[in-house]
Amino acid sequence: MTATGAAPVDGYDLVIFDLDGVIYLIDRPIPGAVEAVGRLRAGGTSLAYATNNASRRATEVADLLTGMGVPADADEVLTSAAAAAAVLAERLAPGTPVLVVGAEALRAEVRAVGLVPVAEADEKPAAVVQGYGPRVGWVDLAEAAVAVRAGAAWVATNTDRTLPSPRGPLPGNGSLVAALRTALDRDPDVVVGKPQPGLFSTAAARVGAARPLVVGDRLDTDIEGARRAGMDSLLVLTGVSTAADLLAASPAVRPSYVARDLGGLFDPAAVVRLPDVGGTDPARDTSVDPAGADGWRLTGDGDRPRLSGAGATLTALRTLCAAAWSGRSVQGVRPDGDAARTALRELGLPTD
Q1: How confident is the model at residue 47 (pLDDT cuts 50, 70, 90)?
Q2: Location of each CATH 3.40.50.1000 domain in the chain
Q3: Where's the GCN5-related N-acetyltransferase-like domain (predicted)?
Q4: Pairing mode, if any, of strands 97-101 and 46-51?
Q5: Cα separation of 348 and 335, whole Å?
Q6: Nearest-CA neighbor of 180 among 136, 125, 126, 220?
Q7: Which residues are bridge partners to 234 per DSSP?
């Protein structure tokens, strides 16, 4: 549970949600998401949605959410597509051609800021903007490569390697950026979306929030972006990042809290506050003792430490994080007893 016994949402004046892997998977709501958002709205908490997915405009995202039973307004939605178009508009004169690699939503955002979306390098674009689109193919990447080699600036909406789906992780925009990076032997000039803090800071500024909470499923985008923006964060285990990823997390991508799902926003027993090992925030609980924390003990040295005791599965994860983040190996941790075996299994960690 949290250090004070209170739910994380208490005391925050804005909750900023990632979408894919947090609210929905592709086009299916994640169990409990509709109820969680409805409860926040009923309580008067300001909401925002910040997504790296550049395949939908804000109005389309709002319509999708509303159709799932999550009423949303377009001005609550921030997309990497709109952010990328804004960056281009700051750098280029109106009417400048921009080669768009991505979905129609990205082309529409480029058009909306007064630039001209094109599809071929022969149209001499001043920039290439690359975002996720389910129909992006070799021809699109080839045109982008030619344009960048001819001097066009290269702007990526995001570099997420994967995106979550009901069938498991699928290639994201970062995988397509990697293909172009390999062909060009260089990185994009600008990456706009998370983990850059812009989407989060814009969301907070829109409503004048003083204490926002970011909720995401990815350590390398949502959580790192929150830390860069100076905001607390909650990692939910309904999308990309796993318990194993959390144990291996560097300080730059460690969340304030972890929960299985959005129920952790309200139920103190369904969330834990993670230690700020080696951190400088006096408000963060740093008192976790891996030798006997929250009913769990981690004993033994070397490559195969042992987890014993009993308690909530998430507090076992907190104990393991405290050890791992303090420099102690938890690789191949073995269960000592049925309770530990069950906890490790529920966390998706090896049990033998």
Answers
A1: very high
A2: 14-52+195-273, 81-191
A3: 294-349
A4: unpaired
A5: 13
A6: 136
A7: 215, 257
Amino acid at residue number 115: L
Nearest partner of 47 among 86, 78, 84, 21, judged by Cα: 78
The amino acid at residue 140 is: D
Q: Backbone phi, then psi, for 271, in 5-degree steps? A: -150, 150
Cβ distance 50 to 200 under 8 Å?
yes
Helix (H) or strand (E) holding 151: none
CATH of 81-191, one of 3.10.20.310, 1.10.3110.10, 3.40.50.1000, 1.10.3720.10: 3.40.50.1000
Rg of the chain, C-alpha, whole Å: 22
Q: What is the CATH number of domain 14-52+195-273?
A: 3.40.50.1000
**Dist. CA 219–CA 228, nearest whole Å:** 12
- Kindly indicate the confidence band of residue 1, based on its pLDDT and cuts at 50, 70 and 90: low
3-state helix, strand, coil in the chain (%, to 5): 35, 20, 45
What amino acid is encoded at 296 in this protein? W
Report which residue type is found at 130.
Q
Match 């976790």 to its residue by tokens.
288
Q: Which sequence positions are flagged as catalytic?
A: 18, 20
Say if residue 93 is exposed, middle or buried (CB neighbours under 10 Å; 0-12, 13-18, 19+).
exposed
Lowest mean pLDDT among 37-46, 134-143, 287-296, 334-343: 287-296
Whether the predicted model's global pTM rises above the 0.85 cut = yes
The answer to whether residues 80 and 53 touch, using CB atoms and an 8 Å cutoff, is: yes
Q: What is the pLDDT of residue 320?
A: 95
List phi, psi (to 5°) of 6.
-95, 155
CB 81 within 8 A of CB 105: yes
**How are beta strands 334-336 and 306-309 bridged, if at all?**
parallel
235 DSSP β-pair partners: 216, 258
**Length of the chain, in residues:** 352
Q: Where are the beta strands (DSSP E) in the chain?
A: 14-17, 24-25, 28-29, 46-51, 77-79, 97-101, 116-118, 127-130, 153-156, 162-163, 170-171, 190-191, 212-216, 232-236, 257-259, 271-273, 296-299, 306-309, 334-336
Query: Residue type for 348, please?
Result: G
Whether the Cβ atoms of residue 59 and residue 85 lie closer than 8 Å to each other: no
Distance CA 32, CA 17 (A): 14
